[in-house]
Amino acid sequence: MLAIVDAYRSGLLARRHWAKNIGAGLIVGVVALPLAMAFAIASGVKPEQGIYTAIIAGIIVSVFGGSRIQIAGPTGAFIVILAGIVAEHGVVGLQVATLMAGVILLLLGLARMGAVLKFIPAPVIAGFTAGIGVVIWVGQWKDFFGLPEVQGGHFHETLWALVQALPQFDMATTALAVLALALVIYTPRLPGVISRLPGPLVALIIVTLIQAAIGFESVATIGSRYGEIPRGLPTLEVPEITLSRLVELIGPAFAIAMLGAIESLLSAAVADRMAGTRHHSNQELVGQGLANIVAPLFGGIAATGAIARTATNVRNGGNSPIAGIVHALCLIFILLFLAPLAANIPLAALAAILFVVAWNMSDVRQVLRLLKGAPRPDVIVLVVTFLLTVFVDLVVAVNIGVVLAMLHFLMNMSASVVVRPQEKIELQRELAAQGLDGMPSDVMVYSIEGPFFFAAAETFEQVLTHKQSDAKVVVIRLRYVPFIDATGLQTLEDVVQQLQAQGVRVIFTEMNDRVARKMRRIGLLKRLGEGNVLRNLAEVITRTE
User: Fold this and answer.
1) Helical ranges in 113-165 per DSSP H
2) Which of 65, 68, 31, 67 is nearest to 51 (CA)?
3) Which of 78, 139, 136 is CA-nearest to residue 262?
4) Beta bridge partners of residue 418, listed in sequence order
């Protein structure tokens, strides 16, 4: 369901809700301004492109998304991926990859894949978000300390080059950065009305005023590096799309889409817990997809649900898409009338803001809690994902993290599947309770308990091949098998074929309709033969006496 429709049906578009949503939207718009510029610069593009993204995504996701309180825009999670794409394929390549990612997100939403993406394990998410935080933090050292350009193709090379360059730090730049960092952190803790002001905005204004008044020549600003931010709205520009470029960018596009899907659904889930709402995950992916299709056509970059801005929206009373739309209109007003003032913003102030973003994104408390209390395999998954994110690549990290978590899950699942012969005494007690006679002496009964899938197939085959040699009938009880996959079916068929070749009659009993349909479709029930698929042990006794 569209967020705007959901809000309308809930009565949240009524006039009595306007004031608090407009107020929340204005506050979020002010908060979004420095973040949008900082994320854009860290991603390797111009600061105004971050503002364009926040405007376009803010409106589209608010209207077409699946959460009525979600605020979308550029986020810190994308920095590592987007900066890499810009470095390798240029800004046009980033726009094409973002557009492709939008199409992927749209298709995921239409295919109702939103629920599937929720199953990415917590250690994987904690590992790659903490890794992104570390990469962002180190990536801002240059602007925070006013260091010279350094060369390094990989993270460890860049880190070492920055460490070696630290003695060359610029005093004025570092002083402004430290002041900005202190303002971001401590503004909410100050007494009085000032504590209600967004820390990043306070830091941006004060540090910019100091730079404008004193004019430190060694301090890099938005104006000195990027020129003046254009006053006005962006125009439609379709990037050049070729088949070779599409092939080159399919990998980065999937990376943007997967990370965008994860972040947006995480943000929507956080908003639900804060506001007591319930988002529609598939519609949220549709909204995010549309935003990422439109944004690059107007100079924007990749966007997703922003947890910090969404939380700010909820805390300030936002409860409908009106807040998200007003946040975008606030940014439009700033872009039209106040854009030239941004030229004096020191890049050190934006670096300080990103220091705090990196710390919050890393969620150190959650990571430490998992490292101390989670099972060892989950700790290994978290650490491997973190290290791969930092030293190799985010996409590789997520893929390997998910595979490791999946293998651990499969090992646990296969260990939970029990394939065992039922002892005569056990059967006699069970049959006596039903008023039945004992099972004939030449009948061997096996019970499969648990999902019969590929990881458990080998266990079944090993147990069945060690059957008693004097058994003329083998009964396989399937009452505790909720489902069976293709490997399980193939294993059953192989075992049935081997036993029948030895002159042993095989009977299946107590299977559910779902399992029976799969066996019938593959032809396994036909191989068993008529009269060898029975409902319960009573029928087995009757047919084998």
Assistant:
1) 114-117, 122-139, 141-145, 155-165
2) 31
3) 78
4) 449
Spatial CB neighbours of 437, under 8 Å, sequence gap ≥ 6: 431, 541
DSSP 484: B
Which one, of 93, 70, 72, 83, lies nearest residue 43 by Cα?
83
Whole-angstrom CA distances from 31 to 168, 342, 397 are: 33, 15, 31
Strand partners, 476: 446, 508
Mean pLDDT of 307-326: 92
Cβ atoms within 10 Å, residue 292: 34
| CA 397 to centroid of chain Cα atoms | 13
Closest CA to 483 of 521, 449, 452, 461: 452
pLDDT at 419: 84
Count of alpha carbons within 13 angstroms of residue 95, beta-carbon side: 22
370 Rama sector, left if φ>0, alpha if ψ -120 to 50, beta otherwise: alpha
pLDDT at 298 over 80: yes
Q: How many CA atoms lie within 13 A of 146 on its CB side?
A: 19
Q: pLDDT tens-digit profile of 32-79?
A: 999 999 999 999 999 999 999 999 999 999 999 999 999 999 999 899
DSSP 219: S
pTM above 0.85, yes or no: no
Q: State pLDDT tens for residues 373-405.
A: 999 999 999 999 999 999 988 888 888 998 999
What are 346's strand-pairing partners? 221
Q: Distance between CA atoms of 349 and 360, rounded to whole angstroms?
A: 17
Other CB atoms within 10 Å distance of the CB of residue 510: 19
Which structure tokens are listed for 123? 């250690």
Q: Check whether 467 has a pLDDT greater than 60.
A: no
Q: Which two tokens stand for residue 421?
A: 């012969």
